[in-house]
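Q: I'm building a small set of examples for a reading group on sequence design. Run inverse folding on the following structure and report the sequence directly after it, with nothing in between.
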């Protein structure tokens, strides 16, 4: 689900329910432009992603927040906020740019503008970028297409602001950590920030060959090219979380092959699909490549992140539905989702994160603001539907794969989820699962339509919790039916009969209470 608009998030204040002012809502994302209109170039590899302009630059600020989403991000922090290429002080002209079909590499073709002693188009620059293991690798291939020797200065400007993703989205912070003085040595510069969460985050830029000039915000190369000659400059931009900075790994071609191999191996988990309609084939190839890019490897297995830029993170509902929709194609994704969500299932009650024992999470964040509790999403459980969807997915996975060993290992988590449905999900005992946030910073609405104004009465008044959504009762019915089937296969026959009975009672109660003759 690649996020194509800078759309509004659904985080509201309790006092704004009757007359919502979205712009005053906490964590609101201002919709100032459409990403489809801007058409950025996007790369992603596991917990790192990058948003570039057409020409491969990052046009963000040197310090502080920005309305622009451009940047190099790692674990919910923007490490690189500005990256610009200049030739004799002028920005090269864009000829073309494209992301490869497998989403692994961005290639930009650039040429010089008219400059003193240099006619436009005489110098060509091919700019190639990819992400691997928390680093962005870039190769500049500079060729002289004129009939005479050329000498010019190529400069790379850069800045790292280490702004939390929620700051980039527009949230204002009263205090921030401390930027450290740049450290320069042997063609490498380290820009670092000590966060208020006691974590040092560093951007390590390494250049090969060593620049003629390397300063706190720019690297300069004196380029001399004979007619037809080529010069190559390699840059590694590595995101480091913690104290020790690893040694640079500047071998561009081996790293590129490793990135391509990793992407290919991930895509080969699922079968290829071919029809006699080439347009349909291209749509399927595009969808599979995008899904492969969004999938992130976790200790529990592959997990599809929700979308770039604002939602490149583990979300419960998004991953569960993605896994259901792709189960026929790649059961490995489903297994990874089930295991990850089981590993992060809530075990205690915490109002700040809407957590209750057995509940399946809504969202996980790793940035400074989440670590400090400035936003509630470090491990946030404000979703009413993730828990029954988790059980539904387990049942669907078993039906697809017959992998009873995995489901047997997950059975304690399934039972915990069932207890949540009965005890916490149906807190008022009316037989239906409803939601209501536990803190003022939580989501007002906690179903799939989770914007603050999404659930309302026929006269336009916003609905106030507790709210029982129709589709959630369907999920609970399907969850108990699936759990009953699993229980019977595990030899828990009495539990299976009880779950079947609960599902039947819910169905009858739902038809009685929710049915509306007028509709």
């Amino acid at each position: 689900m690649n996020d194509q608009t800078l759309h509004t998030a659904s985080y509201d204040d309790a006092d704004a329910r009757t007359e919502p002012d979205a712009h005053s809502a906490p964590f609101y994302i201002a919709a100032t432009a459409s990403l489809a209109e801007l058409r950025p170039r996007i790369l992603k590899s596991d917990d790192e992603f990058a948003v570039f302009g057409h020409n491969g630059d990052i046009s963000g600020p040197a310090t502080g927040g920005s309305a622009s989403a451009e940047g190099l991000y790692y674990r919910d922090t923007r490490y690189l906020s500005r990256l610009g290429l200049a030739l004799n002080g002028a920005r090269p002209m864009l000829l073309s740019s494209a992301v490869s079909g497998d989403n692994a590499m961005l290639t930009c073709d650039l040429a010089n503008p008219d400059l003193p002693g240099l006619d436009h188009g005489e110098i060509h620059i091919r700019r190639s970028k990819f992400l691997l293991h928390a680093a962005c690798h870039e190769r500049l291939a500079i060729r002289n297409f004129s009939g005479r020797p050329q000498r010019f200065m190529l400069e790379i400007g850069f800045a790292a602001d280490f702004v939390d993703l929620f700051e980039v989205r527009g949230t204002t912070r009263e205090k921030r950590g401390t930027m450290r003085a740049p450290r320069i040595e042997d063609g490498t510069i380290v820009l670092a920030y000590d966060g208020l969460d006691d974590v040092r985050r560093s951007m390590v830029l390494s250049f090969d060959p060593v620049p003629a000039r390397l300063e706190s915000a720019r690297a300069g190369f004196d380029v001399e090219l004979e007619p037809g000659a080529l010069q190559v400059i390699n840059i590694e931009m590595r995101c480091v979380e913690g104290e020790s900075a690893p040694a640079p790994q500047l071998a561009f071609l081996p790293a590129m092959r490793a990135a391509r191999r990793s992407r290919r191996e991930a895509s080969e988990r699922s079968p290829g699909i071919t029809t006699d309609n080439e347009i349909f084939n291209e749509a399927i190839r595009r969808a599979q490549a995008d899904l492969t890019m969004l999938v992130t490897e976790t200790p529990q297995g592959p997990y599809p992140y929700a979308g770039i830029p604002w939602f490149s993170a583990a979300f419960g509902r998004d991953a569960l539905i993605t896994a259901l929709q792709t189960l026929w194609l790649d059961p490995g994704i489903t297994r990874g989702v089930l295991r990850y969500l089981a590993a992060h299932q809530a075990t205690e009650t915490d109002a700040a994160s809407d957590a209750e024992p057995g509940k399946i999470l809504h969202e996980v964040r790793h940035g400074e603001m989440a670590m400090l509790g400035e936003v509630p999403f470090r491990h946030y459980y404000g979703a009413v539907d993730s828990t029954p969807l988790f059980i539904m997915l387990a049942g669907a996975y078993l039906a697809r794969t017959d992998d009873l060993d995995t489901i047997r290992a997950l059975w304690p988590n399934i039972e915990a989820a069932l207890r949540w449905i009965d005890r916490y999900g149906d807190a008022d005992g009316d037989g239906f699962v409803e939601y209501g946030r536990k803190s003022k910073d939580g989501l007002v609405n906690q179903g799939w339509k989770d914007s603050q104004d999404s659930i309302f009465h026929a006269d336009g008044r916003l609905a106030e919790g507790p709210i029982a959504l129709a589709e959630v009762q369907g999920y609970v019915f399907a969850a108990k039916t699936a759990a009953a089937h699993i229980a019977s296969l595990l030899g828990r026959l009495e539990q299976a009969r009880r779950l079947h009975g609960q599902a039947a009672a819910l169905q009858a109660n739902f038809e009685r209470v929710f049915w509306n003759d007028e509709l």
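DSSP finds eleven helices and 23 strands in the chain.
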